[in-house]
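User: Modeling request: complex.
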Amino acid sequence: MEQTDRLRAAVERVVAGGPARYHEKLREQGKLFVRDRLRRLLDEDSFVEDGLLARHEDPELAADAVVTGIGRIGGRTVCVMASDATVKAGSWGARTVEKIVRIQEQALRFNVPIVYLVDSAGGRITDQVEMFPGRRHAGRIFYNQVKMSGRVPQVCVLFGPSPAGAAYLPALSDVVIMVDGNASAFLGSPRMAEMVIGEKVDLETMGGARMHCTVSGLGDFLAASEEEAIDLARRWLAYMPDNWRGQPPRGPARPPASATPLSAVVPKDQNTPFNMYRFIEGLVDADSFLEVKREYAPELITGLARLDGQVIGLVANQPAVKGGVLFVDSADKGARFIWLCNAYNIPLLFLADVPGFMIGSRVERQGIIRHGAKMICAVSEATVPKISVIVRKAYGAGLYAMAGPAFEPDACLALPTAQIAIMGPEAAVNAVYYNKIQELPAEERPAFVAAKRAEYAADIDIFRLASELIVDAVVDPDQLRAELIARFAASRGKAETFTERRSPVYPV
Amino acid sequence: MIPVTAPMAGVVYQLPAPVGTDVGEGDSVAVLESMKMHVPVPAPRAGRIKEVRVREGDFVEEGDILAFLE
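Assistant: Request completed. Predicted assembly structure:
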């Protein structure tokens, strides 16, 4: 056979993937074939493939179960790695791993994002000596991910399983998009769990997409379909720079979706919950809010948005859920999101209405102190433009975690409803005057407490704090958007380094 | 029977839906006072209150069952 014909025949065979029965299985599971996923992910005709001929001589091992190469998304270059579940269930052999390692190295050399489309049964135990323990074996994939983290964006979309060691692939990515019902990640399969620890559990309960997006926090987005998941990956990258030295791309500026003035959104009574989503809708550009970890620790809202077309990262307390109190999981969620924004030059906006970190024996046992310290650590380290808005209360370490004045925000702004204090008036009066209150005859107590609370409120009055220059400005809520646009525009030239050292000792 | 559980530790402040009340999804079954905040506890779905397990003033821990819906 002539060489060119030989090439064409081999390519035709490889791009068809694995045996017909596995294509049939994909259809039954509502899954797309790997090359159809790539067609949806990448700009038309932009894909250039590497290693297509890996293991081509074996009809069962087309491309060795992974497709790698470069392409474009929205006109910008990305590297991609995509499992082919029709070939050995997308499992990893020696060439699979080498292909993944090489495309990661290429993303680092080219300073462009990488997208991992994962649908894999994990490492091939039969080939373990060739793919598991060595210098350029599977461990190197994770080593590379750690090295890439904060240099180039890493997006992981899970369409199927990502078991055992391969579960670290999503864990070490910036963002994990999981397809509800099909995606899963776990260290040991249900069969393994039954054999080794005697637990009887199904896959969905143990490591399903919904569990990871609501309970474990491994997943950032729960997608209803493969198409939605792929579209989310494209949308995510529209907020990301190509690499850590780049700026996130500007988008079209749009007025907010909600016409309700912000002054009408916030109730006057500090103890009455309100819905922070209404506040965000009235503040950011319409249709620009891309919420991260919506279903996980919803007492803290994190997400990317645009303000006058400029990308920002939002960290907002949600008083409608658990009173907006910070818990172990919300502190964890906040810290990681702040790290993400700081890595990729995304200015941070904090919207504070927080009664503090949760107290009580349960959360102490869960390590609320060290998890809170982690969020405070992330807030301190963030040197991107950083503005804190005290919407209502900011009590105790809640003020610190939400980029209060000591944490070097470019501005700490207060709305007229703001109340900044170690604790609220009720708790403070009880704490300071506990003995005195007990000594008083019962009928005198209410008047005494009311008088002390009024004194306390006057002491922490936001106008007093503005007079003392604790806050940089008290802003009319209906002017907040315009003021934030002006302040973020002014801070664009900011180029700070936090401090010089090898590594902090992180509280985690 | 669907349990309605406390989202966080706190004291039961109000029980606006006594046994027999029909509630819609998201309606408050209880209000907790925690961290000096009033924290509504929404019904996870529509139903009728079958049993209320707590009284106003009780301390509840995160995950404790407050009421049952059917």
